[in-house]
Amino acid sequence: MKQNIKIDPYGFREYDARWLYKESINELGIENLGKGLGTQIKIHTKKDNPRVIVGHDYRSYSEEIKSALTKGLLSTGCNVEDVGLSLSPMVYFAQFSLNSDAVAMVTASHNENGWTGVKMGIKKGLTHAPEEMKELKNITLNEEFILGKGTEKKIEDFQNIYKDDLINKNKINKKIKAVVACGNGTAGIFAPDILRGIGCEVIELDCNLDWTFPKYNPNPEDLEMLHEIAKSVKENNADIGFGFDGDGDRVGVIDNNGDEIFSDKIGLLIARNLSLKHKNSKFVVDVKSTGLYSKDKILLGNNCETIYWKTGHSHIKRKVNSEKALAGFEKSGHFFFNEPLGYGYDDGINSAIQVCHLLEKQNKKMNEIINELPKTFQSPTMAPFCKDEEKYEVVDELVKQVTKIKESKFKIDDQTISEVLTVNGIRFSFEDGSWGLIRASSNKPSLVIVTESPTSDIRKKKIFDFIDDLLQKTGKIGEYDQKI
Predict the structure, then answer these.
(1) Sign of the C-alpha dihedral, residues 92, 97, 98, 101?
(2) Could you tell me which residues come within 8 angstroms of residue 400 by beta carbon, excluding any fewer than 6 positions away?
(3) Quick one: what percent of the chain has pLDDT higher than 90?
(4) Looking at 38-78, which runs of residues are DSSP E strands?
(5) Using CB atoms within 10 A as the burial measure, which of 124, 218, 384, 403 is most buried?
(6) Please, which residues have CB within 8 angstroms of residue 234's CB and are 6 or more apart in sequence?
(7) Exposure string (b/e) for 277-312, b if CB count within 10 Å is 16 or more?
(8) pLDDT tens digits, residue range 404-436?
(9) In angstroms, rounded to a whole number, what is the distance separating the alpha carbons of residues 430 and 453?
(10) Which of 195, 466, 474, 207 is nearest to 356 (CA)?
């Protein structure tokens, strides 16, 4: 039996577990993952029969993976409560609503078909961070499992409980016409209903569930998805366009003119709006986010502080939690609202709702609101291929190189590097507020590159050329997923 278990150690990533199903993990491997997770939950909760919420996304193989994971959890003594077809935030919400000990959501989010994974957490509202993932990996690969006997039960109609919770707290009086795009992912059976429920007029785009993702991956950072939403916004004369990822924890936003607004800028608008009512608040943003937060007059005027932190939903969630921040924002479209606005976890639909509140309160069009921010030239998130086993070393080497370049006062487009932040890869900034970022992706064999300039599009590109030149010299970089 033992030789049949397949589980690639590299699937245990920084804060998510992701594998190509059958190729890098098989059913027995998933079962062992369930045994490892069940053991870990028992160690941390010190309970014989901890209650674990499980859910799955709408991929053709997600249910069989959930069954194998559940089998593993049951064998350790966990009592499994299955909420069925879910979004990740619905599973996180269930932990609060049903007061369970842990969660496990079967999803590969926006990854291409063939990928699977599990988002999991023990402490309410938080998901595994590197420390927990390392512990889980050790328990699972060394097969140090606790034995027990668990029970399994189905929780009926939980989808409606989740929908009603968001609808009842967030009614709006202004009629907002919204394009809701789901890329045929699981959000299709949630987002339109919830946004209609709060009072929006909804135009659905690719909201029917289709696990083959016939048009594009449900990924609000994907330009193809954004272009489709833009087209629909213009055709329907809509006020706003929302694009949700495969498991519904992220949102992308298109304004009324059909222009995409990067999520970090949406975050800044929401932060400004919240700071008026919640003075002296803290906000956490990831290192891929715009440099505008740190110098924003409205945030500073309301005595709010912004902390730049590691990219990744688990990292930002934990930082929001430990800093008691009001909210956290990631450039990828993960937004986190803490009490009194939410439970601290990322929910793309709640994020869209906050944008609706912003539109209602400001009584202006979205493009007018965004135009109140200082203009910057931002690159999309670019991901050049780099092997999992090499990517961290490549980044460590580049951190040293860029630090030396800063010390040597070398100029890039007539600017010297004024500041270096190394909490997550390297983010280097210039006197004019321009910056570049190089970090390792935490869930794919690739690096992550972002550049921004408040000065010019040319400078944004020059910073990218500088980064690309450093990368090509390593000889360890493959194709980019997209480029400027």
Answers:
(1) positive
(2) none
(3) 90
(4) 51-56
(5) 218
(6) 257, 258
(7) ebeebbbbbbbbbbbbbbebebbeebebebbbbbbb
(8) 999 999 999 999 999 999 999 999 999 999 999
(9) 9
(10) 195
Q: Where are the alpha helices (DSSP H) in 261-372?
A: 263-277, 292-295, 297-301, 313-323, 348-362, 366-371
Which two three-digit tokens encode residue 154?
């189905």
SS3 state of residue 21: strand
Residues 6+ apart with CB under 8 A from 139: 36, 39, 40, 145
Q: Is 266 helix (H, G, I), strand (E, B) or coil?
A: helix
Listed range (16-20, 140-144, 189-193, 260-264) with the worst mean pLDDT: 260-264
Both tokens assigned to 141: 């690969």
Q: How far is CA 62 from the centre of its chain?
A: 20
Apex 305 CA angle, 303 and 308, nearest 5: 165
Q: What residues are paired with 450 via a beta bridge?
A: 437
DSSP string, 418-439: EEEE-SSSEEEEETTS-EEEEE
Q: Are 446 and 481 in contact (CB under 8 A)?
A: yes
Of the candidates 338, 346, 215, 326, the residue with the CA atom closest to the CA atom of residue 279: 326
- The H-or-E segment that residue 121 falls in is strand 115-121
In the beta sheet, which residues pair with residue 429? 419, 435
Q: What is the dihedral of CA 60, 37, 132, 443, to 10 degrees?
A: -20
Give me the long-range contacts of 411-418 (CB less than 8 A, separation at least 24): 412/462, 412/463, 412/466, 413/458, 413/459, 413/462, 413/463, 415/459
Taking only the tens place, the pLDDT of each residue in 214-253 is 999 899 888 899 999 999 999 999 999 999 999 999 999 9
C-alpha separations of 140 from 16, 29, 294 in Å: 15, 9, 42
Which residues participate in catalysis according to the annotation? Answer: 109
- Rounded to an integer, what distance in angstroms lies between the CA atom of residue 271 and that of residue 288? 17
Please check whether residue 454 is in contact with residue 374, taking contact to mean a CB–CB distance below 8 angstroms: yes
Q: Is 119 within 8 Å of 87 (Cβ atoms)?
A: no
> What average pLDDT is seen over the chain?
95
d(CA 374, CA 146): 56
pLDDT for position 1: 45
pLDDT of 439 above 90? yes
Directed axis angle between helix 158-169 and helix 348-362, to 10°?
Answer: 20
> Hey, what are 445's tokens?
């064999």
Contact 383, 441 (CB under 8 A): yes
Structural domains for the chain: 2-156 (3.40.120.10), 158-374 (3.40.120.10), 377-474 (3.30.310.50)
pLDDT score at 444: 87
